Amino acid sequence: MKLKIAKRIYWIGAALTALWFGASGIFELTKNPIVWDITLQLGYPAYFIYVLGVAKLLGIAVLLTPNRLLRLKEWVFAGIFFDIIFAFSSKLSVIGAAATVDAIVAFVMVSVTYIMFRKIYAATYSPAVAE
């Protein structure tokens, strides 16, 4: 795949991820009843919802920073994947399989975005230098 196409797919995915998780973060911080009711129904404490909202907004800021903070972006992707996995498993356990559709869609979207990120910024490893 050409680098130009990979970059285009990455930035579209990053924008969609930013919209999805940015909106979610704002809803968590503004106590949107739909988000709060579901999260509380899943058994998470109220303070966790605020922490999650702040983490999502900070992560989106890092994700949208072009050509910088690459190692931190890896952590952001990891955090987003953890969020999706926990949402999926919590909804599956408490609400039922039908409630997991959004988590599955998010997982596919973020997976494609991450794969394009790795194509654009291929990991380079160098041997550790002992002092």
UniProtKB/TrEMBL annotation:
Matches recorded under Pfam families: DoxX_2 (PF13564)
Topology term for the membrane: Multi-pass membrane protein
Species of provenance: Pedobacter kyungheensis
GO cellular component, one term: membrane
Entry's localization field: Membrane
Segments crossing the lipid bilayer: 9-27, 47-65, 72-89, 95-117
Record's keyword annotation contains Glycoprotein: no
The name this protein goes by in its record: DoxX-like family protein
Keywords: Membrane, Transmembrane, Transmembrane helix
Main location: membrane
InterPro entries according to UniProt: DoxX
